[in-house]
Amino acid sequence: MESLLSVGFDNISSRDSTKIRKGLRQIEGLLAQVCLSQSTSRSPHKRKSSVLSSKQSNSPKKLGELRDDPAFREFFRIQEGFQWNVASRLISTLERLMGMGNPSQTDLLIVSTLDLLHGALLLHPPSRCLFGREIHMNLLLDLLDASNPPKIQSQAVLVLVAALLDCPRNIRTFEGVDGLLTVTSLFKSRGTAKDVRMKTLEFLYFYLMRETPILETGRVVGTEVLQREQKLGDAFAGHARTHSGDGGGMDIDMEETETRTMSEKQRMLGRYLSNVAELVQDLEESAAPFGVGQG
């Protein structure tokens, strides 16, 4: 697994768009092997039969299956160190792509990188600690700029959700770098695409929900919390995502993080939006926003 990641990392570290594209596909292929069930009934002699069986059997593994899968446990283990951490390498790739110019070549690569980063943060929740740093949070907010195409903005919102999910410290970082101003400005802008506006609205609902830390002293906790996290990720992604229920975790210097109540966050959001009370009312009246109870 390390050798496969090494080749992919070498390619995405390039400034050649062709090599970056190849590296992203290599990493995607590795994550797919970790997350997808493999075909057991493919016939090497019948091409048509092989294709059909592949489509039927290459489905996401169930959460319980993923926890006990040797390949996933090995992937989770090597994510603990900086050398093989996928999220950190993808962040560096985003920084490089944003500085390369030539949008016709880089925009699709940025979308692909964000898509993989979204999956990496769900697969390995401790990697979210990277977004406790302002420089990385600002990177996501820069991608929400009005000058970027809707596909980049939409995917950046999904990554932002994954970065903040059950991580109050990251939410405080987001607030500290004027993240609320960035998101609400995008939501209110007349030039914002309908799909992007909908995702920013969903983000605001997400932001107002009760904060539940998933990381305690650097360890991933609670199958129930993880199942709720998976459903939230699915609600934003529009397709299945799977992630860890492993008891292991990345060693993180986790200081006690202040959590804020819905009322406190309502007041903060009220600086930028006039209809926050309506959003809160929607949350209170919904038994299961995003298909998940507030706990």
Q: Uncertain regions: pLDDT < 50 for 5+ in a row?
A: 39-57, 215-256, 287-295
**Distance between the ends:** 37 Å
Structural class given helices, strands, pairing? mainly alpha
Number of helices: 15
Outline = globular
H/E order of the elements?
A: HHHHHHHHHHHHEEHHH
Main sheet properties: 2 strands, antiparallel
Fraction of residues in H or I helices: 55-70%
Number of separate domains: 1
Tally of DSSP β-strands: 2
Taken as a percent bin, the fraction of beta residues is under 5%
Give me the side-by-side strand order of the main sheet: 1-2
- Work out the radius of gyration: 19 Å
Task: Give average pLDDT, whole number.
Answer: 78
Please give the structural blueprint.
Layout: H1 2-12, H2 17-35, H3 47-57, H4 63-68, H5 70-78, H6 86-98, H7 103-123, H8 134-142, H9 150-164, H10 168-176, H11 179-188, H12 194-208, E1 215-216, E2 219-220, H13 223-237, H14 262-269, H15 276-285
Antiparallel strand pairs: 1-2
Helix pairs in contact: 1-2, 2-7, 6-7, 7-9, 9-12, 11-12
Give a description of the structure:
The chain is mainly α. The protein has one domain. Helices cover 61% and strands 1% of the residues. The protein is built from 15 helices and 2 strands. Strands 1-2 form a two-stranded antiparallel ribbon. A hairpin with a 2-residue loop joins strand 1 and strand 2. The longest helix is centred in the middle third of the chain and has 21 residues. The protein is globular. The protein starts with a helix and ends in a 10-residue tail after the last helix.
